[in-house]
Amino acid sequence: MTSAGPAAPVGVFDSGVGGLSVLREIHAQWPTEALVYVADSGHAPYGEKSADFIEARVRHLIDHLRGCGAKAIVVACNTVTGLMIERLRQHYPQTPIVAIEPAVKPAAQSTRSGVIGVLATRQTVASPGLARLVDTYAQGKRVLLQACPGWVERVERGLLDGPDTEAAVAAYVNPLLAQGADTLVLGCTHYPFLAPVIQRLAGDGVQIIDPAAAVARELGRRLAQAGLAAPAGAETAADVTFWTSADTSQAACLIARLWGQPVQPQPLP
């Protein structure tokens, strides 16, 4: 539990701007919840870094969010979840921590061909957390784990479409389709911003699963369980504030584009 009350904000973080795909779902489902988002874009992508480096960064981000009064933390980064989520929960026992993970279970339930492709960073593909998900929920299915180096960097640079981006996406999606995958799991929160390109390449017969909505639902359940949910029924949406470890002027342009309205991110200490 935490000493913060229902009026306190929910803290959300990611290695960069990818977690905005989760933040927008939380904001859509729980508009009265104040939100604080940290984009650690100055150190993205986590998927290419060492586990020790990632854990040091993540503890810094969580400490910052707790300093902002966060009543709960949402880990909007599959790499962090796969590598260290249990250690983080043990280190911060007073704070509810909700974490995203690749949607292997719903993919296994919905695939028709029995072949699932999981698109993720190198660290997520190699993580014990993803291996555990596959062993637990995808028995009898063929799960193709595909690292997609370069995708996070494209999103961080705002390169969401165009011939070069389509070629970069096709390089990792087409081999999965060739092996019969009819369900693709977005195992990195940056990847939903490439989903239109992925869907166009894969075709309407291939299902793409983004776990962000499920994370938002789980957050609502955990807040209600802890007596920390903000009162519903307010006429205006609660505040959303942004922090970044990148250049704030560049971050403002990219976050505004992905978030859909102007923002003024603050520099992360």
Describe the structure.
With 269 residues, the protein is of the alpha/beta class. It has helices at 20-29, 51-67, 78-91, 104-110, 122-125, 128-137, 151-156, 163-178, 195-202, 212-225, 248-259, and strands at 10-14, 35-39, 72-75, 97-99, 115-120, 142-147, 183-186, 207-209, 240-244, 266-267. It has two domains: 10-100 and 213-267, Rossmann fold, CATH 3.40.50.1860; 104-210, Rossmann fold (3-Layer(aba) Sandwich), CATH 3.40.50. Helix content is 44%, strand content 16%. A six-stranded parallel beta sheet has the order 4-3-1-2-9-10, with helices on both faces. Strand 3, helix 3 and strand 4 (97-99) form a beta-alpha-beta unit. The longest helix is centred in the N-terminal third of the chain and has 17 residues, at 51-67. The relative contact order is 0.20.
